[in-house]
Specification:
This protein is mainly α. It is built from 11 helices and 3 strands, in the order H-H-H-H-H-H-H-H-H-H-E-E-E-H. It folds into 2 domains: 147 residues, Orthogonal Bundle (Ribonuclease iii, N-terminal Endonuclease Domain, Chain A); 72 residues, Double Stranded RNA Binding Domain, CATH 3.30.160. It has a 3-stranded antiparallel beta sheet, covered by helices on one side. Strand 2 and strand 3 form a beta hairpin.
Length: 234
């Protein structure tokens, strides 16, 4: 069994001191570790709660701080920060990876830097803060870690055309442009379009819609989220 990480400095990085430190430890307990030690609850229930708390706080901050944005843009703003890539970036900033309780195999496989594990752990920690201290400290934690990101994202929302941001990302990561393969089904008056995004010969996203543009945007969004996750883990 791996030695347990030192969690003594994490509350300071979070800006919250736990009344029940066991909650923080549970929030960092990945199921791979729980399977090895036996009898210990994983962080999955806290992750479920933290996901809901995060959605509430980000929606509240979006509404209060960005009165200039219409409903559709508020949704785009929320998506820009509530995704595995963005949450993993925040988790890295506060040093969450080094604090995770992982099984030997997951640890050896680089689990401490996997976006999915990091983002889930962040949501679990947020859930633990909510259980331990209530809504106010949970709100304050999200506001401190995300408000500035949201302000920056709001300034780029006109660019949150997923085809555009995907093209920028693929140029940076692969020095190439995405290729869209389109197909359709149905009669002319009721067509449905399907798009697949190819990057460096690999399918990285799919989408569908009532128009080519809608299908391409849906496929580009899926591809952008997937490649963003890869960028964080690399």
């Amino acid at each position: 069994m791996l030695p347990e990480p030192d969690l003594s400095e994490l509350p300071q990085r979070l800006g919250y001191e736990f009344t029940d430190p066991a909650l923080l430890r549970r929030a960092l307990s990945h199921r791979s570790w729980c399977a090895e030690v036996g009898g210990q609850p994983s962080n999955e229930r806290l992750e479920f709660l933290g996901d809901a708390v995060l959605g509430w706080v980000v929606a509240d901050l979006s509404y209060r701080n960005h009165s200039e944005l219409a409903e559709g843009k508020l949704t785009d703003l929320r998506k820009s920060v509530v995704n595995a890539s963005a949450l993993a970036e925040v988790a890295v900033e506060i040093g969450l990876g080094q604090c995770l309780l992982l099984g030997k195999g997951e640890d050896a496989a680089g689990g401490r830097s996997k976006p999915s594990i990091l983002s889930d752990a962040f949501e679990a920690v947020l859930g633990a803060v909510y259980v331990d201290g209530g809504a106010q400290p949970a709100f304050a934690l999200v506001e401190r870690l995300f408000a500035e990101r949201m302000t920056s994202a709001a300034l780029r929302l006109d660019r949150l055309d997923y085809k555009t941001v995907l093209q920028e990302l693929t140029a940076r990561l692969h020095d190439t442009a995405p290729v869209y393969v389109i197909s359709d089904t149905g009669p002319d008056h009721d067509k449905r379009f399907f798009a697949t995004v190819i990057v460096s010969g690999v399918s990285v996203g799919q989408g569908e819609g009532r128009s080519k543009k809608t299908a391409e945007q849906a496929a580009a969004e899926q591809a952008w989220l997937a490649l963003s996750d890869q960028a964080v883990s690399s």
